[in-house]
Amino acid sequence: MRADRSLEPPTLPLANILDGLPVVHVERTMPGYDCDDPEILLPIFTPKPETQRPRPCVHHIRGGDVVFFNRVFGAEAPLSWATHGDAVVISVEHRLAPASRGSTN
Questions:
Q1: Which of 37, 74, 76, 94 lies in disulfide reach of 66, CB 3.0 to 4.6 Å?
Q2: Rounded to whole angstroms, how far apart are CA atoms 5 and 20?
Q3: Measured between alpha carbons, how far is 44 from 27 in angstroms, rounded to an integer?
Q4: pLDDT band at residue 11, thresholds of 50, 70 and 90?
Q5: Among residues 56, 46, 51, 55, which one has the least CA distance to residue 21?
Q6: What's the CA dihedral at 71, 17, 22, 51 to 10 degrees?
Q7: Nearest Cα to 72, choosing from 58, 62, 82?
Q8: Cβ 43 vs Cβ 75: under 8 Å
Q9: Given phi > 0 = left and psi -120 to 50 = alpha, else beta, which region is 68?
């Protein structure tokens, strides 16, 4: 069964969401689950101004894999932790189901 994309609310590109926010956005990768799996993208959001002093770090994991919408759906809460909580936020790019077998193999 295919999802009806017409029922999804519109989502903005990450650049539109970040526009005007005092954060620096970089992306790093880490190895996938198995050696044959593609790397996993880790978006990192650091509050401006950048500093050498220690900051709290939040590892944000969006629940439910990305069965619908896109990777920036729900990004407003973690971005507010970075901007208002002065925390570095590291998220994780889930793969789309059902192409990804996730943790159920």
A1: 94
A2: 29
A3: 6
A4: low
A5: 46
A6: 10
A7: 62
A8: no
A9: beta
Torsion of CA 65, 25, 60, 7, to 10 degrees: -40
78-100 pLDDT tens trace: 888 899 989 999 988 766 555 55
Q: Please measure the distance between the N-terminal and C-terminal CA atoms of the chain and give it in whole angstroms.
A: 20
- For the stretch 30-59, pLDDT in tens is 888 778 888 888 889 999 988 888 999 998
The pLDDT assigned to 51 comes to: 81
Q: Is the overall model pTM greater than 0.85, yes or no?
A: no
Calpha distance 105→103 (Å, rounded): 6
From the CB of residue 82, how many other CB atoms can be counted at a distance below 10 Å? Answer: 24
